[in-house]
């Protein structure tokens, strides 16, 4: 006997979308009911949605500046035990290494390598080694300037973290960036776990090398797996958020993968893509 189909809900959100605009997108699936979730969010239930229709909805929503999420109807935040996040351009708005390079007058060169790596065009470990080598001789104090002057939490990030903590989930910040930043963000944002690369320094200056193994795509996945094992849950009870190709392996083992302001290759493979809303849109999707 075939399994019963899994019922889906469609959650539509847009920072500048009103209920009329959201309702117009919802009508594409001909739902049995729609429910306003807040001023800029709407839930649609009771519909049959083929892959072709789902793609049509996603395209129409994107064109309207609206994030559309198709997830299991009963899925809730309480079904999960961990939220794992990439750092650069996900939990925070900048790529730290690009801003560090700016202190050397090398931002364009380093940013070009970063972009290629995030699109999956370059091996991440090799690209990181090339970028870090360009930082040789930079005073360590420059890292502090990047943290103080340029690092900002992504929109909705603090609200999202407060919501998942209140629901009893643990948090993991796993980054191909650097411990200088994750170690400062951990107490600031009350994060439970962090893992990142260690920049080598000598005599107050960066050497252009990373100490130990590089946190690449495989190490990110292993970190999520280790953290899940440590807290006694299966990886399918993890929500994983990222934006670049080096996040795809850890997103692939998650129960829910979330692409945030992500590269096309990541959006295409994620369960949910947040292109316009803040990180706290996750709370609405899983309400």
From TrEMBL:
Annotated EC: 3.1.3.3
**What is the required cofactor set for this protein?**
Mg(2+)
Q: Which GO terms describe its biological process?
A: L-serine biosynthetic process
The UniProt entry, under InterPro entries, shows:
HAD-like_SerB, HAD-like_sf, HAD_sf, PSP
- Which GO CC annotations does the UniProt entry carry? cytoplasm
User: What GO terms are given for molecular function?
Assistant: L-phosphoserine phosphatase activity; magnesium ion binding
Q: What class of enzyme is it?
A: hydrolase
Q: Which keywords label this protein? A: Amino-acid biosynthesis, Hydrolase, Magnesium, Metal-binding, Serine biosynthesis
Q: Which residue positions does the secretion signal occupy? A: none
Tell me if Nuclease is a UniProt keyword of this record. no
- Where along the chain is the active site annotated? 86 (nucleophile), 88 (proton donor)
Q: Which reaction does it catalyse?
A: O-phospho-L-serine + H2O = L-serine + phosphate; O-phospho-D-serine + H2O = D-serine + phosphate
- What SUPFAM superfamilies is this protein classified in? HAD-like (SSF56784)
Entry superkingdom: Bacteria
Family the entry assigns: Belongs to the HAD-like hydrolase superfamily. SerB family.
Give the protein name, as stated in the record.
Phosphoserine phosphatase
């Amino acid at each position: 006997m075939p399994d019963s189909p899994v019922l889906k809900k469609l959650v539509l959100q847009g920072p500048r979308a009103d209920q009329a605009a959201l309702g117009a997108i919802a009508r594409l699936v001909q739902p049995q009911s729609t429910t306003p979730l807040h001023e800029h969010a709407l839930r649609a239930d009771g519909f049959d949605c083929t892959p072709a229709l789902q793609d049509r909805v996603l395209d129409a929503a994107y064109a309207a500046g609206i994030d559309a999420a198709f997830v299991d109807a009963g899925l809730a935040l309480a079904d999960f035990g961990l939220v794992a996040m990439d750092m650069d351009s996900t939990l925070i708005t900048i790529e730290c290494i690009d801003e560090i390079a700016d202190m050397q007058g090398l931002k364009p060169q380093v940013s070009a390598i970063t972009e290629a790596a995030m699109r999956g065009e370059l091996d991440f470990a090799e690209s990181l080694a090339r970028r870090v080598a360009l930082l040789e001789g930079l005073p360590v104090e420059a890292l502090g300037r990047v943290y103080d002057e340029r690092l900002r939490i992504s929109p909705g990030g603090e609200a999202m973290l407060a919501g998942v903590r209140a629901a009893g989930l643990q948090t993991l910040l796993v980054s191909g960036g650097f411990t200088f930043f994750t170690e400062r963000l951990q107490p600031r944002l009350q994060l439970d776990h962090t893992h990142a690369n260690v920049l080598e320094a000598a005599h107050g200056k960066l050497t252009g090398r990373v100490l130990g193994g590089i946190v690449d795509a495989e190490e990110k996945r292993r970190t999520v797996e280790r953290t899940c094992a440590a807290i006694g849950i299966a990886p399918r009870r993890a929500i994983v958020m990222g934006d670049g190709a080096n996040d795809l392996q850890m997103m692939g083992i998650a129960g829910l993968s979330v692409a945030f302001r992500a590269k096309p290759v990541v959006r295409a493979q994620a369960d949910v893509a947040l292109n316009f809303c803040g990180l706290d849109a996750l709370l609405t999707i899983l309400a």
